[in-house]
Amino acid sequence: MIPLSNFMMLSAALFVIGLYAVLVKRNVIQLLIGIEFMINAALINFVAAGKSDKNYMGGQMTALFTIVIAAASVAVALAIILNVYKYYKSIDPDKLNKLRD
Amino acid sequence: MTPEQIIFYVFAALVIISALLAVVVKSLVRSIFLFFVTLFAVAGLFVLSLGDFVAVTQIIVYVGGVLVLMLFAFMLSSKELLNTLELVKTRYSAVQNIPAIVLSLALFFILVFALVKSNVNQLDWINGGNHLSVSDNTVQIIGINLMTNYLFPFEVASVFLMMALIGAAHLARKDKAE
């Protein structure tokens, strides 16, 4: 049996990689990938800890709901990215500096 | 080393290496496909911690849904995205690469330090007898819990998905007025 701390160490590393992508990337889609890495790091923790909760399955249920919400938010984010691209002709987050027309 | 440990370390290495490559690589297409590898490896880790249903959901929703959506998004935008992105340093980019690396490493060390200090393997509820075992039918347990303890979040998630569907369709539509 693999100890919980191994899973948590791995998820810490994955979270940090996602954070680095969010800080550095010049491209909204890659930024979104960074956010997904961070969500996946949290999911690893939830499922690994949920192994010791047989009655309520708290970890696995939270992971399921998180996957659903992350998928929905990605759909909306990509619709926004397409609109932003139509308007600015670029998806560099540094160039998106206006909310109005 | 037991086989379980070997499999764990293989998947862990796959997750870390493919995630790092996905972040470092310049081309967007390669980055998306490496993201795909990371998601599969994470699903493998879910299976190792006895979350088989979550692993299947991860593959169906993330790999089947999110990834295809991302591929669509950059194919629907123009060819300009396919090229290596222009690496013009804008004046407003406050966080350049070196500070970001330092910040990420600092956060990683804080997390590892907290993990070592908190000694998670010795917690009472981790060591209690309430473990899932390999022979348990997790799909059945999840199904029963979904209809009893987690009914309210389940219904809220359905309304939320409806909202996201309508919102995304509204945002992505073409203007007829023009």
UniProtKB/TrEMBL annotation, chain A:
It is an enzyme of class 7 (translocase). One of its GO terms (cellular component) is NADH dehydrogenase complex. It is found in: Cell membrane; Membrane. It catalyses: a quinone + NADH + 5 H(+)(in) = a quinol + NAD(+) + 4 H(+)(out). It is a multi-pass membrane protein. Its main location: membrane. NDH-1 is composed of 14 different subunits. Subunits NuoA, H, J, K, L, M, N constitute the membrane sector of the complex. This is NADH-quinone oxidoreductase subunit K. It comes from Hufsiella arboris. The lineage of its organism: Bacteria, Pseudomonadati, Bacteroidota, Sphingobacteriia, Sphingobacteriales.
Automatic annotation (TrEMBL), chain B:
It is a multi-pass membrane protein. It comes from the Bacteria. It catalyses: a quinone + NADH + 5 H(+)(in) = a quinol + NAD(+) + 4 H(+)(out). One of its GO terms (cellular component) is plasma membrane. The keyword ATP-binding does not apply. Pfam families: Oxidored_q3 (PF00499). GO terms for molecular function: NADH dehydrogenase (ubiquinone) activity; quinone binding. Its EC number is 7.1.1.-. Belongs to the complex I subunit 6 family. This is NADH-quinone oxidoreductase subunit J. It comes from Hufsiella arboris.
